[in-house]
Design brief:
With about 325 residues, this protein is an all-alpha fold. It has helices at about 1-5, 15-35, 35-60, 75-95, 105-130, 160-175, 180-205, 210-215, 235-245, 245-250, 265-290, 300-320, 325-330. The chain has 13 helices and no strands. Helix 2 (about 15-35) runs antiparallel to helix 3, helix 6 (about 160-175) runs antiparallel to helix 7 (about 180-205) and helix 7 runs antiparallel to helix 8. The N and C termini lie far apart (about 85 Å). Catalyzes the post-translational methylation of isoprenylated C-terminal cysteine residues. It holds the Pfam family ICMT.
Amino acid sequence: MIHFIALNRFYIKNIFVRAHFLTLLLAVGFVWLITSPAIGLFTVILSLFHLSEYISVGIWCPKTLTLDSFLLNHSPQYHAAIIIAYLEYFFEKYYLFPNGFPYHWITILTGLIMILSGECLRKLAMYTANQNFSHLIQEKPNKEHRLITHGIYEYYRHPSYLGWLWWACGTQVLLANPICFFIYLISTWLFFVDRIAYEEATLIKCYGDAYRNYQKRVPVGIPFIRGCLYNWWPTFVIIFYVLCPIPLTIARHCTSNDSYGTNDSTPCKDFMWFLTSAIVASAFGLPAILFRANIILAGSMGFIMAANTVVFGTISTYFLTLNSDDSLGNF
């Protein structure tokens, strides 16, 4: 029935099996509500989320509707997170609070508010984007795609991601799972840091200055994520700048004459030079990898490469020129 409503195709085995599995899960959740309201609601909400994702795509963007629209095969990490949430709930229920969790109705109501708010925000984003919405990042949008900046997108650049973050964290508030709450919060935030940076890099390639101006006007919505325009990953090269002088300093004291000449080579000095080479190579390799992964733009990569050349050139000149403490004093 789910697929019939969405796309008028009824007898498709794979769709039918998944829809019935989620319907069965929904029924189990309603039965569970009688004895354990929190875990029952979580099961019902989980089932409805996956069903509603498929139906929403089928109604508003049927051209992108596939078997993956159920989001059941999201990732092994997602499946593990669901299992861990159930395990933590039952551990707390039967071992920590066998007589019932105090003030459990407060956590249930708070969690429901977060879940409903997040779900409404996500579905509103899907409805607003309409034919432009897709669960997968489109590196080369077709001619029908256009940049959506109206509706809910006037306030958040990624409202569907923000909604999912609220939904995911709300489920753990509902279950009163403190450990899973922080796991869900941190893992979801880290996931969206990479995904948003990658997605916005592709959007900049497609829409150019139009999307850059949109970035400047409208925030991402998720705290401490600024997207591709203000990507903080390249700042990791600073770590390499700090590390580089350390093996060079050690190598300076591995020789008898405190020099860097090739005539007085020792295993210690050779190993320190190897570490220095690895640090320098990593500093130049990081921006290249980030550019290759579409996390930063070519201009950013070039700027970092130039900075690396200046910094490492200065460090090398210092250690190769000033061979001893005496030369440093004379300098």
